[in-house]
């Protein structure tokens, strides 16, 4: 029980809570979804490797794993949007590999998707409308006002560069393995450059953004950054809409 006159962390307004807790919840939410999305690829890689390269069996197991994950989240009444997206992704990959009969083609849609993200990051950085700045404007409904704030612009631009670097590293590993038809290495790289690498990227992006602006500015941005990671809307905006 809290002492009279003392405000506990739980009782404090969301904007006054420590940045690490709010942001870690956002990162934790993403990590949980990435685990669910990554499980089918772990299943694919293991089954393909231990079944003497039985492509159809590996694809069936991967699709089944994606379905089980979606069902598990549905039963627990957890958000399944990311799992459905992952299931669709696995389905497209399975269709591609089954159509060509080449196991490495299961990774082709993902490679092309990363190439698309890389191009998007590059264009937004070069034009000085970094993607994470645009997302920040949409989430906060301040649109392009962040471009008038030098600290905020610098931070959001650097975060976009961090994610662009992530995509570049992923492609630099995956493309040569794909061209070499090294399916086992592709599977391992897919897993390693999925959840673990993405979690590292989120951590680096958080540190870069926080280090790009003074403490008083960070206090204004921290909650919005966490909501960007979760894909939700800040409480302040929701309260304003109810008023």
| Residues in β-strands, percent | under 5%
Secondary structure tally: strands: 0
Distance between the termini: 33 Å
Number of contiguous helices: 10
**Low-confidence runs of at least 5 consecutive residues:** 1-20, 22-28, 237-243
The string of secondary-structure elements, in order, is HHHHHHHHHH
How many distinct folded domains?
Answer: 2
Structural class given helices, strands, pairing? mainly alpha
How many whole angstroms does the radius of gyration measure? Answer: 21 Å
Q: Average pLDDT value?
A: 81
Considering DSSP H and I runs of 4 or more, what fraction of the residues is helical? over 70%
Main sheet record: none
Short description:
The protein is mainly α and 243 residues long. It folds into 2 domains: 56-101, no CATH class; 103-229, no CATH class.
Q: What does this entry look like structurally?
A:
- There is one protein chain.
- This protein has 243 residues and is mainly α.
- The chain has two domains: 56-101, no CATH class; 103-229, no CATH class.
- It is 75% helix and 0% strand.
- It has ten helices and no strands.
- The protein has helices at residues 19-50, 55-75, 81-100, 108-126, 131-140, 150-179, 183-192, 195-211, 215-230, 235-242.
- The radius of gyration is 21 Å and the shape is elongated.
- The two termini are 33 Å apart.
- Residues 1-20, 22-28 and 237-243 have low confidence and may be disordered.
